[in-house]
Design goal:
Strands 1, 2, 3, 4, 5 and 6 form a six-stranded mixed β-sheet that branches. A hairpin with a 2-residue loop joins strand 2 and strand 3. Helix 1 packs across helix 2. This protein starts with 6 loop residues before the first strand and ends with a helix. It is globular. It is α+β, with helices and mostly antiparallel strands.
Length: 132
């Protein structure tokens, strides 16, 4: 399926070590919802980005940088145009004004973090790409 014109929407929740139970687990960015215009992202699709993944519910990242790197890999590996990341706290603020599916996606654009194809371009990562 050609997805180049589709966006991926990623809703995540930050769990700090104080909110976790008595275990000594580190803080984590947990993906709650991962979908595009045609529905939820499948486990098979997620495995293209993280081959060792066993369950979509296990999408946890220790840092926001890892979460952003996962998003960039989704763009390049799964052929999405862009990814919109949204924290659950920001989602809760925006959902009050949501009345239909398009306004639901607009929450991600208004309150979230946008990562586009240009953010995954390897040429812009070297110093010459930044200068020229």
């Amino acid at each position: 399926m050609k997805r180049r014109k589709m966006n991926l929407y990623l809703l995540y929740h930050f769990k700090d070590s104080q909110n976790l139970s008595l275990t000594n687990e580190p803080c984590a960015y947990h993906i709650i919802l991962l979908f595009s215009e045609v529905g939820d992202l499948s486990l098979a699709d997620c495995k293209k980005v993280i081959p060792e993944l066993l369950d979509v519910n296990d999408l946890n990242f220790r840092t926001k940088e890892e979460l952003i790197e996962f998003s960039k890999n989704c763009i390049s590996e799964l052929d999405f145009q862009s990814v919109f990341l949204l924290a659950s706290n920001d989602y809760n603020i925006g959902i009050e004004s949501c009345h239909d599916l398009s306004s639901f996606r607009e929450i991600f654009d208004r309150y979230g973090h946008h990562i586009g194809i240009e953010d995954t371009d390897q040429s812009s990562k070297n110093i010459f790409g930044k200068l020229f």
